Fold this protein.
Amino acid sequence: MSARRPRRAIQPVARPAARQRRQRFVMLTTRSAAVALALRAIPASLALGGLCAAPVAFAAQASASAATAAASQPYNVAAGPLGTALSDFAVQAGVTVQLDARLVDGLRSAGLQGSYSVADGFGKLLAGTKLEIAQSSTGIWLVRPRAAVADTPTPAADATLPTVKVAAQNDSPYGPTEGVVAKWSSTGTKTGTPIVEAQQSISVVTRDQMNEQNAQTLNAAVRYEAGVTTETRGGIATRYDMLNIRGFSADTYWNGLKQIQNGMYSVPQVDPYLMDRIDVLRGPVSVLYGQANAGGLINQESKLPTVQPYHEVGVEFGNDRHQQATMDFSGPIAGDQHYLYRFTAIGRQEDGQVESTRNERVAVAPSFTWRPDDKTTLTLYALYQRDPASTSYGSVPAVGSVLFNPLGTIGRSFYDGEASFERFSRTQEAVGYQFEHALDNTWKVRSNARYYHISQDYASVYGSGLEDDDRTLDRASIVSNDQTNSFAIDNQVEGNFSTGPVDHTVLAGFDYQHMATHYALGYGSAPSIDVFDPVYGASVDAPALTRTQSSSNQYGVYAQDQLRYKKMLVTLGVRQDWANTVTNGITDNTRQWQNDHAFTWRGGISYLFDNGIVPYFSYSESFVPQSGTDINGKAFDPERGRQYELGIKYQPKHYNALFTAAIFDLTRKNLLTTDANNPNYQSQAGEARSRGVELEAKVSLTRSLDVSASYTYLDTIYTKDNSGLQGKHLAAIPSNQASLWAYYTIHGGPLAGLSFGGGGRYTGATYSTDNSFQVRSFFLVDAALRYDLGYAIPRLKGAEVYVNAQNLLNKTYVASCYYGNYCAYGYGRQVFAGLNYRW
């Protein structure tokens, strides 16, 4: 075994030493044209803020650096962030620059044109700042404060600063990203890996993109991402994050740990304002994450403490009596950068789109980071989120919304419930930690854990079918009281080393998930209602409740090796899981056991061309335990998923962009369906398949223009089924989806400080459950306008006003029909206007 060699292409010299969203101490090596071009693929301010590199110096390099420093040569460095300018200058000079990115955060440079020596060029770029340049004995150029500041580490050639997080100018696998183009992700490999090197399709929704689009739900945040079908329950289901990836259900994760639900109505949901980024990983993921739906996962990463002080408050108003207030504070505690804090909060209230309904929320998310040294980081975080009300979870019948009704069309504000009976109240509380310690330059250990509690009280009257007169809606009632506690922990060890000519990033881990729930559930009857002339106020009797207790456990061990031989990358991973569930029927004094185990694996291969093109091929698997038994009393085996994916990723060298394309074949097996020989029982003869193509582009064409675009084609059918679905399309999944979002910011002239953007979202036609009819396609338009008041009134620096409109043209459309003839209207026009102030 030999020491780890510096990686080529677009890898940092060494991997980050702390798994926390933070800023890092960086060395950019540009000794050869190949390495220089590779580094130019990462925008400099991003690389300086998000990567970690161990100082690597040789005597030959020092000699070469000295010769280079004395010579003058022409430079052309564009104006922009100071970190970007310093990196561009270093690339053109062919030297190494090392700095603590905290020093240049928020600073800008006028650029540099003309002939200079290296020292004079750096000095010119740093003129007017409190920074200076110096060259170490090894030839590395160091940017440092002109005068030492207490408790502020000064970079040194042979030392590494404590790892920290920065609020902006950052691009890392764990932290926020400036702009809409993220280059790194930890979600696909659980190690810091460039997205172009991950052999599975990944998209990242950055904080900037969420702000541009003013995304207020998880569905809204991922509307423009390829392969994701959002808002399958339209504008009535804000309480749940109901979406699909590649035609199948997807799991939601928070800070790398699954948001566990009890299978009833106690479903976790965290407000996206509390997040810095959202990663979308498509396809089976069980090798790293255990039991998981075949569609993939969405991982939401919290806003966590920053070393750079950050303060933001905001207010917002909109139609439907929308009111919102936000705050976000972060920075060192008492000026000591070993102790960092963050406090983020949001309050929101508004009328629901459906008549007589309301949305209300208050959420608070404090966090604390302790960095005792440069090898250790511990972050504690918590959540309190209270939703006293949420809009109706009802529906409209297909006849009168999608299908012709001779009596007319049912309005999208139609309410199928009873306000006197309706209630929804949910409280979520969570505490967790993220810990990392570097044992040495090769090995590090991580631990990530969280406890989560959900308390929910739900009662509703809902439509159950339209009678033959085309206007009388039969209704039923439901009551559910849930208490759910869950705990998840993921322990990992990561090693970076070489065996001969092959570099390895090895990951091994053990994770555990536990869920315990107690719920009382009941279904009852309710009086019918006229959908065209509804009269509310009918008396509804509360149904009798059946009480159930359930607990489940999952244990998993996994191992993964990312191998690199020259420009060839290979990833191999294996995992073994054990899962068990015990369900106690308290009311009827019954008990059921379910014990499962599953082995899953994945593999991938890719090649890094010098021009930034990376073709890849991968195979991956998933499993999900299923409750129940067949006619012989045999417990059902887990549902299994497997995917073949062939793709290509392109990260240009000369501008900030990421292009991805993928074709895939994804199959779910062991699905429950009617037993062909005994219709009163179920068997596992079902199978569903999804094949498709995904195209996606994230581009910052200039520092003013951001563009996101995607196209998805899906062919989803039941390939095996005994209930009449075989050969039919999956409900609510479109064959075609496309989106385009563009956002432009004016930096100079009389309109400086003005930003504006717009986008369009196309969703193709979808099928009902039995494919007896189709739901029409629809196209929606969004728009945004924002102005930085500091450009017009300097004393208002940090204040901005904005207006966002979603479904700007107020199109009325049915989002989907599901479970027979139950359908849901999509969101009407939503207009939000607000004011933010940052300092």
